[in-house]
Amino acid sequence: MIKTFPKLAGILLLAVLFLLPNQISALSLDYKERGVDIHAPDNSTHTSAAGETPYILEELASFQFSNHNGSDCWGWKDPSGNQYAMMGVSGALVFVNATTQQIVDTVLTTDCVWQDIKTYQHYAYSVSECNSGLYVMDLQYLPDSVHVITVGPVGPGGELSSHNIFIDTIAGYLYAEGSPASETIHIFDLANPESPSYLTGFSNTLESVHDFYVMSDTIYIASGGFPTMDVYDMADKFNPALIYRIVVPNAGYVHNVWPSDDRRFVVTTEETNGKTIKIWYVEDQNDIRLVSEFLAPNGLAHNAHIEGNFLFLSHYASGVRVWDISNPTCPKEIAIADLSNDNCWGVYPHTGDSLVYSSHLDGRFFIHRFIPDPAYVSSIPDDDFDGIDDDCDNCPGLSNPNQIDSDVDGIGDLCDACPNDPYNDSDGDGVCGDVDNCANYNPDQNDSDGDGNADACDICPNDPADDADFDGFCADVDNCPAIQNVFQEDTDNDGIGDACDECPNDSVNDPDADDICGLSDNCRYVYNPLQIDCDSDGYGVACDNCPS
Question: Coil, strand or helix: which one is 358?
Answer without folding.
Answer: strand
